[in-house]
Amino acid sequence: MKSKRPFKVLIAKVGLDGHERGALVVAMGLREAGLEVAYTGIRSTPEQIVASAIHENVDAIGLSSLSGGHMAQFKRVMEVLKQEKVKGVLVFAGGIIPDEDVKKLQKLGIKAVFGPGSSIASILAFLKKRLK
Amino acid sequence: MRQYAGFGTAAETNQRYQYLLTQGQTGLSMAFDLPTQIGYDSDDPLALGEVGRVGVAISSLADMERVFEGIPLDQVSTSMTINATAPILLALYLVAAKKQGVPCSKLTGTVQNDILKEYSARGTYIFPPAPSLRLVADIVEFCAKEVPGWNTISVGGYHMREAGCTAAQEIAFTLADGITYVQTCVERGLAVDSFAPRIAFFFNCHSNFFEEVAKFRAARRLWAHILREKFGAKNERSMMLRFHTQTAGSTLTAQQPANNIVRTTLEALAAVLGGTQSLHTNGQDEASVIPAEESALLALRTQQIIAHESGVTAEPDPLGGSYYVESLTDRLEQEAREHLYKIDNLGGMLKAIESGYVRQEIYRAASEHQQAVEAREKIIVGVNDYVSDQPLKVKTQPMDPRLEPRRRRELAALRRKRDAGKVKQCLATLEKAANSSDNLMPVIVDCVRSNVTLGEICRVLRSVFGEHRPSHSV
């Protein structure tokens, strides 16, 4: 029966930035497509995000950043995930993230980065493929 | 012509301002970093990684003085995009001016001071809505007496539109915020005609050309009705909706960025034909970076070409009387009235915000837009049609890694040098005043003059007012 349960995704905003249109549109789009989605709200700390991910028992976490603070902030999320021994959760990201940082983020274990103009369909396709 | 700028340190911002002034810009516009906007000093642990990133970092009087070094404040007007911490930034500006020898009565400028839209869209709130409204009114009341040339509130629809709402919603939500501010000030005993002329508006100019022209016309008409009928304004200036416009950042694409020059030009033209009083045109690279100097300059040149070469500024309402524009104006006014009516039924804008209604409306519209783009019912050139394989150039402003440590050292030195007894006394007075119903502006002016920092002032206010915790559901 486990396979019947819809995938659950946490969309998270880390840092002080309040631009949440992207995060919310992705959250609403994924929900529309039948996934279960939780949203952290703005100004979440990495600790709060990981706690929510554990509490909600999610399959994936989508991190959003538009203010340029992603390197330090996403890195910290990955560290806290490790500290809390969270395993098997797929982490992806979106927002204004320069190419040279994308590679660095992938090394940290962030599986995909969706830049400006990305479609919900492409995020959905990625999740379906990775969460099989 | 007023271009929004400001980044990094006070010294770098000063340099950009000097440059823009020599290029013929007529007013300054200040962007602040996120810690400054939500009440943390640059050395606060919560500011880590954010100092100087999306605007200039201002924690103390010394920072403000440095930004305006060599710029006589009686000769420029300054617009500050600041909300939750507006009382503090305004106080810093007033004291910096005084130290230049410029009295408050000679200053002109604007503070955004529009906290309500922060709960709906932009997110730089600190305190709950009710004490925040008090701070808004404190500024209005203080400036009516002390800084008569200051525009005390710039009621913004820009950010709600960027967040995804429609043109009619932009009118309605903006005016609903405006109504709440006027109501708050009237309830405080201020005569409507004593402060309403100093309220300005800030709109977006989106891509649908005629709809945008009509939007400005409809908003003007509605505001005049509201001021006259609801608030009994007698002064015509109270009823006038004066507004600044910025072209829509959300219409810019990271794909094929040169297309954004064309988009911005069309949007700027619509804003001018719609009667805007001042304008910011976005740089072509702004979908993905803080604009480079050459794109900021090209954006300014775009305005100069419209102003001096196109001839469109000869007449304030050149499309008035056009069948199409008049009918669009009527339609938008009607739709905006319907939204306003719904808000009234919810118990007013404060209730509509607190219940999450406004956010739901905005993000529902954003989601519908996204679906229309993905279904290709809406075409975005270079994104879902006419695409090319050009790789995206996404850049974030490279941050000088020495900036944050330097800011920490500067602030540590400031805290060592200043009169600690005086600081303590100022903060105690502030706490007492915050617990009373006194106007906080004079107290905050005293604080910043004694080198109390922005973060220290906000810490006291947080302890008295509490912090806003939004519901996260959408």
Count of helical regions of chain B: 20
- CATH fold type of chain A: Rossmann fold
Distance N to C terminus of chain B? 37 Å
CATH superfamily of chain A: Cobalamin-binding domain
CATH class of the largest domain in chain B: Alpha Beta
Helices and strands of chain A, in N-to-C order?
Answer: EHEHEHEHEH
Number of helices of chain A: 5
The CATH class of chain A is: Alpha Beta
Q: Give the neighbour order of strands across the main sheet of chain B.
A: 1-2-3-4-5
Describe the model.
The complex is a heterodimer of chains A (132) and B (474). Chain A is built from 5 helices and 5 strands. Chain A is globular and about 35 Å long. A 5-stranded parallel β-sheet of chain A has the order 2-1-3-4-5, with helices on both faces. With 132 residues, chain A is α/β, with parallel strands linked by helices. In chain A, α3 links the parallel β3 and β4 (90-95). Chain A has a single domain (2-131), classed as Rossmann fold, CATH 3.40.50.280. Chain B folds into 2 domains: 4-374, Methylmalonyl-CoA mutase (TIM Barrel); 403-465, no CATH class. Chain B is 53% helix and 7% strand. Chain B has 20 helices and 9 strands. Chain B has helices at residues 10-22, 34-37, 61-67, 86-100, 116-122, 129-146, 158-163, 167-187, 192-195, 209-230, 236-239, 259-273, 293-308, 323-345, 349-354, 357-374, 403-417, 420-435, 441-449, 454-465; strands spanning 4-5, 28-30, 77-80, 108-111, 150-151, 153-156, 199-205, 243-247, 278-280. In chain B, strands 1-2-3-4-5 form a 5-stranded parallel β-sheet, with helices on one face. In chain B, strands 6-7-8-9 form a 4-stranded parallel β-sheet. In chain B, α1 links the parallel β1 (4-5) and β2 (28-30). In chain B, α4 (86-100) packs across α19 (441-449) and α18 (420-435) runs parallel beside α20 (454-465). The model of chain B has no long low-confidence stretch (mean pLDDT 94).
